[in-house]
Amino acid sequence: MTTSVTLTVCFDAPFWVGVLEIAEAGEVRATRHVFGSEPTDAELYQFLLRHGTALLERAQANPAVPVETRHPVRHNPKRAVRLAAREAARVAQGRRSTASQEALRLELEQRKSSAAAESKRRKQDEAERKYALAQAKRKRRKRGH
After folding, report:
1. Where is the composition biased (Basic residues) (predicted)?
2. Using an 8 Å Cβ cutoff, are 21 and 67 in contact?
3. What is the pLDDT of residues 41-95, one digit of tens each?
4. pTM assigned to the model
């Protein structure tokens, strides 16, 4: 079983974004990290030394998306050259694979749902706190103090 890990850094206006993809057993897991300004090679190296493990753990925690396996189709050699050039241009521009895009979408949905649940819990706690303060204030007024 082979596992490949790739970190692709690309410009996703207005920030530079790193996309970490873990491909294993026909599945891809991905996560992204926003760098802000363009990171140099030395900064990327330091970032991976400091935060690489956490980034890998974050990617492993995300749901796996199956990668479509295509059976090789015999093409005209000229068509094969055009397809290879198109794929090389896609990689050069930093575009992510569709499987990693799907994995990032699933990660975003998970973060949204957990953030919404946390926000709802905080609002309920705040409402309960305000209600308790109002009850205490009402009791103080009733006592006449």
Report:
1. 136-145
2. no
3. 899 999 999 998 999 998 888 888 887 755 566 778 888 888 888 877 776 666 6
4. 0.51
Average confidence (pLDDT) over 33-47 = 89
Q: Which long-range contacts (CB under 8 A, 24 or more apart) does 137-145 make?
A: none
Is the Cα dihedral 127, 129, 133, 136 positive or negative?
positive
Question: Largest Cα–Cα distance in the chain?
Answer: 94
Please state, in angstroms and rounded to a whole number, the distance separating the CA atoms of residues 34 and 32: 7
Angle at CA of residue 105, ends 116 and 118, nearest 5°:
15
The structural domain count of the chain equals: 1
Cα 29 from Cα 5, distance rounded (Å): 10
